[in-house]
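Ticket reopened. Same input as before:
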Amino acid sequence: MTSLTQQLTAIAAEAFQAQGLDPAFGQVIISGRPDLAQFQCNGALAAAKAAKQNPRAIAEKVAEALRGNPVFRDISLAGPGFINLSVTDAFLAGAMNRIAGDPRLGQPVKAKPEMVVLDYGGPNIAKPMHVGHLRAAIIGDALRRIFKFVGDETVGDVHMGDWGLQMGMLISELEIRRPDLPYFDAGFAGPYPAESPVTLAELEEMYPKASGDCKADPARLERARLATAELQEGRPGYRAVWQHFFDISVEAMKRDYGNLGVHFDLWKGEACVNDLIPPMVEDMKKRGIAIEDKGALIIPVKEESDKMDIPPLILIKSDGAAMYGTTDLATIVDRVNCQNPDRSIYVVDHRQGLHFVQVFRAAIKAGINGKGTLFHLGYGTMNGTDGKPFKTRAGGVMRLDDLIQMISGEALKKLTEHGLGGDYSEAERADIARKVGVAALKFADLSNNPIANYVFDLDRFSRFEGKTGPYLLYAAVRVKSLLRKAAAQGDKPGSILAPEEGERDLMLMLGQMPNAINDAYGELAPNRIADFAFNLAQVFSTYYNAFHILSEKDAAIRASRLALAELVLKELELCLDLLGIATPERM
RNA sequence: GACCCCGUAGCUCAGCUGGAUAGAGCAAUUGCCUUCUAAGCAAUAGGUCGCAGGUUCGAAUCCUGCCGGGGUCGCCA
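Engineering reply: fixed in the latest deploy. New output:
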């Protein structure tokens, strides 16, 4: 099972091959001139160039070969060699019934699944999650869902910042505040308390304080360094404190990601790979991959063909500490050990592009990456309406939970304004508001190209008209309501009949979904699916206005329209699910 | 300074492995709720695709140069 254009491409490819031409020229696409035809094939033009022949003549020969195929209602030539194609209504109806009967809605399962590790987290212990984590989460989780649906094995790793100097700062901060705690008593033998000595709020307050003090006071910084070193060497009391910090932070992260509907398979962090670093570094040193330079241990990654000077990756600083590039390399080792991925995709802010060039080159140079490829999907900055990186009105960084609360609150306001759900329970209204809010947020992000910067405009996102997540939810929910009403009057979706005048556009759209999914998959561009979903919702809204379903007198036609509506719903929900957007039952 | 990304309608953005007349949404104007949720639908208007060259039968798309905006460039992450 494939999309309509893929099916027609297979037919056209054969026709090209029969003329002794490369079947790759048989690419069939949706027509750019729907007034002339449903589909088109431009392959004759490219084939003519390659074979140095007249394009019109090639097009004529291919068209002649295609005329033998009964799926076509009309085949004509236009311009320098466009082949315009339209299919029969019977073919369209047959295709619709097949898709409707396919649990995957026409999307084939990938023949050779790959193991794909996606890295789209990066939250830090003790620091509240903020809008900076938003894009990675939204884009990465969507990609994970898309890859999984297409047929790959996927592992999403949150890859927390839970190690290093920041942890030493926090531990020493606690020790300064409460030196009497058993964690800091070197002679303490008994089991440490199960309860955390600090709350999340306290932890979040401690970090900026400690960080500021360390910046201002070298002695304070030295104390943090020492704590870091002792932590890494395994001092039991410090490890126990670290575990508390980790646990309460992870709990908060899981809540935030959960509210966003973002899933991770692995909750690993930098600490997990700490023990892999010394042997890795030792090995790289021994093999001459890493060399000493200015007191540091570096891996040169410069290449002849570089247009600019690529600085080396610094493995060990001159003070003996590891860097985040070191941790990233150790993480690659860990992933090869655990998942042995065919692909690793890092969904990280594009400003870290150079860092990943260094890490990837170092990994390849050291031969630690196993069989896989490494790819950095750098997404653009989320800016405010002033074009500068998004900030709160006070100029600070906005917390993720504040943001979600804000947009859910806005959604609730809109629901009330439109008099929707007045008779629903408080809990259901809150659930709907959260879904609508998250849909607004995610869809706005995912309908942009990941690479480009984008403007986060709460006012614009909160207006739920137009090309927005809420519009899509609205479209889906309307169909759900329709199906419920149909069931109540005893109607069931049936066999899809040959299209009436005005029904073809909807069918053509329904037959296109695999193209959108394949494009999104191939280009790592969820916006392909977002675009498709919006187009489908629009075409259906038009249809919904023009064709009344429940009041149709002919039972067979009623059942056919109902089946189309149900198929629209299935495709919409699938697309939304691939974008990580949940659809409420009603709104 | 070098390198990377971006520049498309008043605004926010799709489209970029070359194809016919460059698409959406918002904002503007005009219609449509005694039939399935009007967060909707129909219609009108809005463009030197940053500029200048080049390649091609054909360029928003590929190449070169320039202009404007953003980013990155050895011991932070």
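The two ends of chain A are 34 Å apart (CA to CA). Chain A has four domains: 4-87, 164-268, 291-379, 400-578. Please confirm and we'll close it.
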